[in-house]
Write a structure and sequence with these properties.
With 191 residues, the chain is α+β, with helices and mostly antiparallel strands. The protein folds into two domains: 26 residues; 160 residues, Cyclophilin-like (Cyclophilin), CATH 2.40.100.10. The chain contains three helices and eight strands; from the N terminus they run αββαβββββαβ.
């Protein structure tokens, strides 16, 4: 009886230890202190990351994947801001029906950011419904920072003029429900 009890405890302990090791090596929620860059993300045949960004709002969740090869510096900076909780609680300061929704400005005015401008990473990706791209000053292509927009329809006139770094894969219907000044509850990155 004692040997069975010890064996059961050993198996249980081994299982729990393995489970804890796997979580610390590859956690599901990457909002911890683990530094993640675009190079750490595996991609599918379309160039989209296997990792998902979960943007939670009171209207529902918007899930998108990233383009780490098409916009490596933008993706890395976005992940860094997500891990710091930068976007949590920020409003959608720009909502234009049949065009786009925009967030990422801590001032809510459309003029603020994180304070670190990025060099443009224009790519050949197209603005279709659910495209996620960095907003910028139209007069300065290297002025993108933390603000990003999500398109509500195809916008081909924006192609090659803004850094596309993601694509919505779930929650397209939620995009239509977002109103001006609705807030992001939280954004997280999950493998």
């Amino acid at each position: 009886m004692t040997l069975k009890y010890i064996s059961i405890l050993f198996i249980l302990f081994s299982f729990l230890s393995c489970d804890q090791k796997s979580k610390s090596i590859a956690p599901n929620d990457l909002s911890s202190n683990q530094t993640i860059t675009s190079k750490d993300l595996k991609v599918d045949e379309n160039g989209l990351s296997q990792a998902q960004v979960i943007l939670r709002t009171a209207k529902g969740n918007i899930v998108f994947k990233l383009y780490p090869k098409e916009a490596p510096n933008s993706v890395t900076r976005f992940i860094t801001l997500v891990q710091k909780g930068f976007y949590d609680g920020l409003p959608f300061h720009r909502v234009e029906p049949s065009f786009l929704i925009q967030t990422g400005d801590p001032t809510g005015s459309g003029k603020g950011g994180s304070g670190q401008m990025l060099k443009a990473e224009f790519n050949k990706l197209q603005h279709i419904k659910g495209t996620v791209a960095l907003a910028r000053d139209p007069k300065n292509e290297d002025s993108a920072d933390s603000q990003f927009y999500i398109t509500l329809t195809a916008l081909p006139h924006l192609d090659s003029n803004y850094t596309i770094f993601g694509q919505v894969v779930d929650g397209l219907e939620v995009l239509e429900l977002i109103n001006l000044n609705d807030k992001i509850i939280t954004i997280s990155l999950q493998l």
